[in-house]
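P.,

For your records, the input lines for the assembly:
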Amino acid sequence: MANLLSVAKLAGVSRATAARAFSSPESLRPETHRRVMEAARVLGFRPNKVAQQLRTRATRMLGVMVPSLDNPVFAEQLQAMEEAARAAGYSLIVTTSGYDPGREEAIVEEMLRQRVDGLALTVAEADHSAVLVKLRRESTPCLLVHNPPVAPCFPSVGVDNRAAMADATRYLIAQGHRRIGMIGGPLLQSDRARLRHEGYREAMEAAGLTPLALIEMPRHTQVALSRLAPALGGTEGLTAVLCTNDLLAISLIGELRRSGRSVPGDLSVMGFDGIELGRHLYPSLSTVVQPRAEFGRVAVDTLLALIRGATPQPLPLPHVLREGESAGALPASRQAPEPYDP
Amino acid sequence: MANLLSVAKLAGVSRATAARAFSSPESLRPETHRRVMEAARVLGFRPNKVAQQLRTRATRMLGVMVPSLDNPVFAEQLQAMEEAARAAGYSLIVTTSGYDPGREEAIVEEMLRQRVDGLALTVAEADHSAVLVKLRRESTPCLLVHNPPVAPCFPSVGVDNRAAMADATRYLIAQGHRRIGMIGGPLLQSDRARLRHEGYREAMEAAGLTPLALIEMPRHTQVALSRLAPALGGTEGLTAVLCTNDLLAISLIGELRRSGRSVPGDLSVMGFDGIELGRHLYPSLSTVVQPRAEFGRVAVDTLLALIRGATPQPLPLPHVLREGESAGALPASRQAPEPYDP
DNA sequence: GAACACAATGAGATCGATCTCATTACGCTA
DNA sequence: TAGCGTAATGAGATCGATCTCATTGTGTTC
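C-alpha cells returned:
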C-alpha cells in the first residue's frame, strides 16, 4: 500500500513536505500542495493511523468497558458515547466484562497496551475493584460510568442512585402504598444496587415504614416469581415492588400477568433506568429515567477533558421519574389496616 | 513509560533479546529470560501494541459497524462478537451508522486508516451501497452481517430473510388467518425488509391469499397506530400483522392494548429477531428468532478465516419460529366470509 | 585439542508517519 | 542587482517494537 514516501517521490518533494500537505496545507505553496494531493490521489494513498499514533504518542482511541450489552441501558449509553466520540475525532474500543473481575483485569491491561488515550469503565464494585487499584498507579485518564464516585481518584458520571431510588419510593408512598419491597439481580453487593437499596430504606424509614431486605433474583434480566411469591400472598403481602432495573421490572410484570395477577391492580411495579422500550409496553413502565444519551455525551466530554489535563468534577446527572401505567394508586380494598399518620 | 530498550539495558541484553523474552521465550537461556522478565517487572514495562502493529502490519483489531445500538438485536450480536473476538485475541472498534450512507462512508474510511484487519458491516442496502463499491477495490477483508449476500464479493452472515418471513406467514395462515398485513420501519427499500416482504408475499400467494403492501412506520422502534388503523377496522380488517422487527411488534402490541384492543384476540402480532426481552412480556412475543449470539460467533469466525486468506462461504444461519402468546388461532367469530379451499 | 554443529545473542534495518532544525527559495526594498 | 527577511522545503532523528542476518558461545565428537 502507498505510503507517504511514495507520494513524496511521485510529487517530487520530500517526505516532510508530503506530510505537511496533510497536516498544515497552509504552510505549502498552493502548487506544491496540489502536486502532493494529486500524487496521493493517483496512488490511492491512505494515511496510516498506526504510524501517526506511534509517532505522536496519542491514539485518539477511548477504551470502553461495560458489564453487558444485553441490557439496553448500556447499549443506549454506548450509542451516545460513540456518536460523541466520533464527533470529537475519537474511536471506541468496546468490551464487555460480564461483571467478572478477571475479565475486567485482562481487558484493562489489553487497552493499556493498546495505549488508549482514556478509559471509561463500569465496574461491579468501584470501592473494592482490583482493576481500579491498578489504574490508580497508571497515568491513563480514567472515568467511571454508573459507579458512584466512591473512589477518590476517579471522576464518575451517573445519577445519584440513592436519591433516585428514594424518589421512586416516595412516589409509591404518595400513591398510598405502605408495604413496598425491592428486588435486584444477583449482585446484591454491587455498589449501585446497594445505594439504591439505601435510598429505598431511607425513604421508607422517613415515612415511618419498615424497609425490607433486597430480594435477590438469579439473573439481572429475568425474575423468578417463586422467589417473590412468599412476599406477595395474603392481606399482609406487598402492594408495590421497586426493581433495580427495567428488565427485571418488565419481566416481573410479564410473570405476574401470566400468573393471573394484574399490574398495577394487584401489584404496582417500578423499574429503574428508563429504557426506551418501557414507554411502549402495556402497561407502560413507571420508572426512574437515567438520561442515557446524556450519560454518553457527558462521559465522553469529561474523559476528553481529563485527557487534556483538566480535572473535571462532573456533577451527578439529573434523574427523572417517569410515571407510567405499571404503578398506580393503592386500591381502597388493599389499604393497610393501620392508616399512615405521622 | 518504559520501553523494550530500557528493559534490555537493565537486563544487560540487546533489544532483540529482550523482545525474544516475550515472543519466543524458549529460544532464550532460562537465566537470560529470567533476567529480562525481572527487569520488565521492575520497570513496569508494558508492551506497546501500536509499535507492534506498525511493525507487524497487523492490528488484531476488527472494525464493526451496525446501524444502531438502540435495537437489542444489534447489541446482542455485538456482545457475542466481542466475546468471540477477545477469545481470539482481537479487539473491536465499534461504530454506528444510523443507516446514513454518509456516515457509513466516513466510518469505513476511518477504519481503513486505522488499518483494522477486517470489517464486519451491516449496511442499509447492500446492493447499492457506495461504501461496498469502494471496499471492493480494497484488500481489507470484509464481511456483511444481516445483509443478504447479493454482492458477489462479500461473504455474508445472516438468516434467510425471505424463507424466515415465509415461515412466519405460513404459521399465521395455519392458525386460520387470511387477512394478514405487514409493517416495517422507514426504510422500505432496505434489502432485508424487501426480502422479508417477498417471503410474506410468496407465502400468501402460495396459499391463494392476497398480499398487501408493506405499511411504513416513521421509526424503526415505534409504531404509529394511525398508519395502521385504516387496515384494522370492520369485518374486512386485518386479523394478523407481521412486523419487520421485534421492537415494532412490541410497540404495536402496547398501542393496541392501550386503545382497548386485545392481542391476539383482536389482532395477532408477530415479531422478527427474537430479542430476549420478548420472552418475558405478557403476552409473550411470537417471533422469528435470529440466533444473534451465533451470528456474532460465526461473524467473527468467518472474518478471521477471511483474514487468514481463506474464502469461506458461510451458509445462512437457521432461524427458529418461537411461538409466543401474541399470535394465536383466529377466533371463529372472525372467520373470513369465504372459507379457504384450494 | 581442533573442528564442527547448533544454540544464543547482537547489530542494524524497518514499519510509516511527525518533528526539529538547517537550508534553500522567494519577494521586497534600496 | 545586491541584500535581507521570511516563506518553503529538505535531511535526519524519532516513536517502540520485530525481523533478518551475522556473530559469538557452547557442547560434542574424533
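Two observations worth noting. Residues 3-5, 15-16, 19, 23, 47-56 of chain B lie near DNA strand D (CB under 10 Å from a C1'). Chain B touches chain A through 52 residues (CB under 8 Å).

Regards
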